[in-house]
Amino acid sequence: MGKEKQMAKKLEVKELNIEHLAAVMELQNKVVGNLQEDEKHFVLTRSAQDFIKALEHEHTYMLGVFDGEKLVAQSIFSYPQNGQVRDMPEFDCDTANDKLVVYKAILVDVEHRGSGLMKSMLDYIEKKSKAMGKTTSIIQIAIDNPASWISALANGMSIRKVDYDPTDGAKVLYLAKNLQVPTRSEAQGRMAMFVGKNIHREIPALFNKMQYRVAQGYYGVGIDKNTHSLIWEKPRDNAAKNRIMTQPLVQASGQGRTTRY
Question: What SS3 class is residue 86?
Fold first, then answer.
């Protein structure tokens, strides 16, 4: 039996509480400790107090994946309320807060990467969110963290905006998914953007290319491994919506950035 099958038998997804705080801190320290110096901006390092606030907040939840008794992945997700200043106010401005689920702080143990843990967590969150009547999930990911945004694409999210983070100026991707529609709407156009066999080497040039495609009304929807390409589609109803979602941010929110991986 392969390693993946042995691992899958032991994995359990469940919501976390204050009793899991030490395990969450240990996982974060391990993940950050295994990053190269120029990769550490991928993860917004949180203090124990930050995690406590998330655990105690009425509309914020923490989810974990356990391999036996060991926490090997975790994420935070929130359900912003109407009238509140939410994370990423510069993105998807046309969706009401109470229809959104915001993904943030997704961490996966380096020894379990490639085991589908991110997908397991997103599937769980989507099921919960759909039952609550949520229509859209959103996330922000650093462009030079392709492992994370490729995983998000594989889970049905699409790249809708490519910009600089209004707080720290990092180059980021904004992704979203319609939770109530099982498949994407019919595409008006489709094209492939070659990213090469070593996508990390192409990142500097990709940022400008992605911005250009989004400005044309395209969504980044997936990776074609055979051609080493990022696939873009232009939804038929995208013209007006794209103008709203890509408008520049006039003033940064006073709320701290908590959405990047």
Answer: coil
